[in-house]
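Why do we bother with holo predictions? Because pocket geometry can differ from the apo form. Keep that in mind while you read this record for zinc ion.
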Amino acid sequence: MIHKINHIGIAVSSLKDQIPFYRDVLKLTFLGEESVPDQKVRAAMFQCGEVKIELLEPTDADSPIAAFLEKRGPGIHHIAYETDSVERELDNLKAAGVRLIDTQPRNGAHGTKIAFVHPASSGRILTEICEPGGKEE
Ligand code: ZN
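The structure, written out:
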């Protein structure tokens, strides 16, 4: 079951340039930075109440984030809904005939399991389904 928004993903050209706004001006709690090799990005996470803000910087020219920046420029990249089982959500989405980018869960930041719904099936909003890993509460 989907029970809340886990995070909002924001595509940025430079983490170094954008982190100070979220950390020092908005004063969100900075949770740290990590590389997500699966998606060829570096991610910086901030906590804002129950929701996290995930800044995404491409680490490679063929990263999906590089393609997004090229096409649309910096901005909101995806919304991630939290579930207790990505597998179950995928079964549900498949049964509903929803077009998927990931038919199987893959590894996200912070030990999460994630899968993306194709924007063609979600009003052009890239939609992530995300299951927290053991490291998170
Ligand atoms: Zn995400």
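Residues 2-131 form a domain with the 2,3-Dihydroxybiphenyl 1,2-Dioxygenase; domain 1 fold (CATH 3.10.180.10).
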